């Protein structure tokens, strides 16, 4: 079968058909897939059947894997893979059970000095209904702002913390809790385009501001720019392997389903660059 690349929305996302990632991918096909990634920022490979070794080999077509700090979720035999299982979510300090990625729109692992360029999600088991994930093109979000606001925001930097969740052990908090500083508006290293880059849950504060003021500024900004015309809501199918470009995309896992049914994703992160 020939490789087919179909847009999933006008703003973001494309699906890839005709590629079996458990087999060798032709170099010409991989070139076009990488071009599609630059353009679409989110790619979905349909109908994949990947054991952990095959999954890691497939992911490494797009870069080197990196360490994740979700320690209690890591697969023992393959610690590069986090197993995100809705049935295993512990309550937070307020007693709420919110599935992985479902608290707020975010980009992943901003508490790392060098955050991931891609997040990879592989759908293993899905609930009977619900459990979609939404993605937002933050290039378009930045482009939508008036020039004066672009200039103002481009001067801001975020201080990023690790969250105090039960599935993150003390050694990970020590290793990845160094409060790195990143630009709020980062430049994509491949295209030179600007994007809003933030994880509200990991935001300690904006440099030179107090935490409450910082959260108000970020939430006000996101409420304004996260409009339907820059978003795509992905309805998962088992066997979907999805790549998301963290450098220009925010995402949100919807928790409109029975967590006890079991929504299971295998997640891998691909090493990126220091944001500039």
Name a few traits of the molecule.
single chain; 276 residues; alpha+beta; Double-stranded beta-helix; seven-stranded mixed β-sheet; three-stranded antiparallel β-sheet; 6 helices; 20% helix; globular
Record the SSE blueprint.
Blueprint: E1 4-7, E2 14-17, H1 27-40, E3 42-45, H2 52-59, E4 82-85, E5 116-125, E6 133-137, H3 138-143, H4 147-153, E7 157-160, H5 170-175, E8 181-183, E9 185-187, E10 194-196, E11 203-206, H6 211-225, E12 231-234, E13 241-245, E14 249-253, E15 264-271
Parallel strand pairs: 2-3
Antiparallel strand pairs: 1-2, 3-13, 4-15, 5-13, 5-15, 6-12, 6-14, 7-8, 7-11, 9-10
Structure description:
Helices cover 20% and strands 25% of the residues. The chain has 276 residues and is an alpha+beta fold. It has one domain: 4-Layer Sandwich (Double-stranded beta-helix), CATH 3.60.130.10. The strands form 4 sheets. A 7-stranded mixed β-sheet has the order 1-2-3-13-5-15-4, covered by helices on one side. The protein has a 3-stranded antiparallel β-sheet with strand order 12-6-14. It has a 3-stranded antiparallel β-sheet with strand order 8-7-11. The chain is globular, with a radius of gyration of 18 Å.
Brief overview, please?
Helix content is about 20%, strand content about 25%.
DSSP summary: helix tally: 6
Q: Kindly state the percentage of residues in helix.
A: 10-25%
Strand order in the largest sheet: 1-2-3-13-5-15-4
Show unreliable segments.
none
Q: What is the CATH superfamily classification?
A: Clavaminate synthase-like
